[in-house]
Amino acid sequence: MADKELTKEEEAAARTKEAEEQAALPYKWAQAIGDLDITVEVPGNLKGKDLNVDIKKKKLVLGIKGQEPIINGDLPHEIHVDESTWTLTTSPSGTKILELHLDKVNKMQWWEHVITTAPKIDVTKIQPENSKLGDLDGETRGMVEKMMYDQRQKEMGKPTSDEQKKLDMLKKFQDQHPELDFNKAKMN
To answer: Shortest CA distance to 53 belongs to which of 45, 62, 64?
Structure first.
């Protein structure tokens, strides 16, 4: 939004406007940081062959064959086409629900909208759900665990993992070269 802080009234008005714009869309959508789900209610007599679902890396077409598409536009960011899926399920009311799952390429980015022509949401207001270390991929998990360990070490006044590695290398060097005097050596 703008650089200035919004008043509580302006903030509430912006939230209301955003909610109204999203409610007016012919689909519902929700996202996690790594993926996005879209649901569309369609008549209960439809089968999968009656639908037009075309998922591309940067474009999405979704609708009923022979009718104007419900969604037809460019995606704001790339998706993994092979990891994205759709299903058609029957709802308790007798209609059917077209459920579309899009797997984001950039798993560290919130989307402001499903297609670039749709109204935007304020992604700065998204409250991500807490994740567990086990949910992270191996490399990210290792990095987070290292950061947590280093933070605990600093709080206790002990060396971080990188500092400890340097101290261990120095100790090894000192052990290999007892003839050298390190008493007046300064380490930084």
So the answer is: 62
CB 26 within 8 A of CB 69: no
Q: How far apart are CA 167 and CA 187, in angstroms?
A: 9
C-alpha angle 130-131-135 in degrees, rounded to nearest 5: 170
Residue-wise pLDDT tens digits, 136-161: 777 877 888 888 888 888 889 998 98
pLDDT of residue 75: 96
Q: Fill in the amino acid letter for 139.
A: E
Q: What pLDDT sits at residue 2?
A: 47
Q: Evaluate whether 41 touches 142 at the Cβ level (below 8 Å).
A: no
Q: Using CB atoms within 10 A of its CB, is residue 79 exposed (0-12), middle (13-18) or buried (19+)?
A: buried
| Residue 20 φ/ψ region, left for φ over 0, alpha for ψ in the -120 to 50 degree band, beta for the rest | alpha
Report how far Cα 134 is from the mean position of its chain's Cα atoms.
16
Q: How far apart are CA 74 and CA 59, in angstroms?
A: 4
Residue 62 CB burial class (10 angstroms; 0-12, 13-18, ≥19): buried
- Contacts of 157 by beta carbon, 8 Å cutoff, 6+ apart: none
